[in-house]
């Protein structure tokens, strides 16, 4: 298990803005790596109500289950490396592998036995180190949606915010309130369920 605080800034982009960032930061098509995010919650969306999220991410042939929960600054992420077989079983049954994630869910008062698999979001992601942070460019597809997003992950919130706003200003990209991927996924799912 590992835990870390995630501090990131994000902004949805148009496809034109996405291409502009690729050019400005010299990001090539072969810099993008495919990752799949498989999302879980209870049928009552207990995690969503707590501002938390649970996913299994497949990146190359590595699988990591991550629970994100609110922290004073950013999000507390708890990571648990799992096997391909364990990931497949959890997606199929919703039954979580015992360990640190289940322990954290119980601390949050969430019944791990009521967890359900909700769906997958696939992202093509490129990452670039930039001024003591990590610039992340994402092209995601989920349900009937395709979107583009810029993220900037940092250790220091105040400095990161200034740098992120400078990037957007220099490229003439408007600041857009951007929900995280899992929230966008669930809102789209609600919409499509009618």
From TrEMBL:
Pfam families: CYTH. Residues 4-192 form the CYTH domain. This is CYTH domain-containing protein. CDD domains: CYTH-like_Pase_1 (cd07762). InterPro entries: CYTH-like_dom_sf, CYTH_domain, Uncharacterised_YjbK. Gene3D superfamilies: Hypothetical Protein Pfu-838710-001 (2.40.320.10). It comes from the Bacteria.
């Amino acid at each position: 298990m590992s835990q870390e605080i995630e501090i990131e800034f994000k902004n949805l982009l148009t496809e034109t803005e996405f291409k502009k960032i690729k050019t400005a930061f010299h990001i090539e098509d072969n810099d993008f790596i495919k990752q799949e995010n498989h999302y879980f919650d209870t049928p009552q969306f207990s995690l969503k109500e707590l501002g938390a999220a649970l996913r299994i991410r497949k990146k190359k042939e590595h699988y990591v289950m991550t629970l994100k929960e609110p922290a004073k600054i950013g999000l507390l992420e708890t990571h648990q490396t799992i096997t391909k077989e364990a990931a497949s079983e959890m997606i199929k049954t919703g039954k979580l592998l015992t360990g640190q994630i289940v322990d954290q869910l119980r601390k949050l008062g969430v019944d791990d036995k009521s967890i359900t698999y909700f769906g997958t979001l696939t992202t093509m992601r490129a990452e670039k180190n930039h001024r003591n942070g990590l610039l992340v460019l994402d092209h995601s597809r989920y349900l009937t949606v395709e979107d583009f997003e810029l993220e900037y992950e940092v250790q220091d919130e105040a400095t990161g915010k200034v740098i992120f706003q400078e990037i957007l200003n220099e490229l003439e990209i408007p600041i857009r309130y951007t929900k995280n991927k899992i929230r966008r996924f669930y809102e789209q799912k609600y919409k499509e369920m009618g």
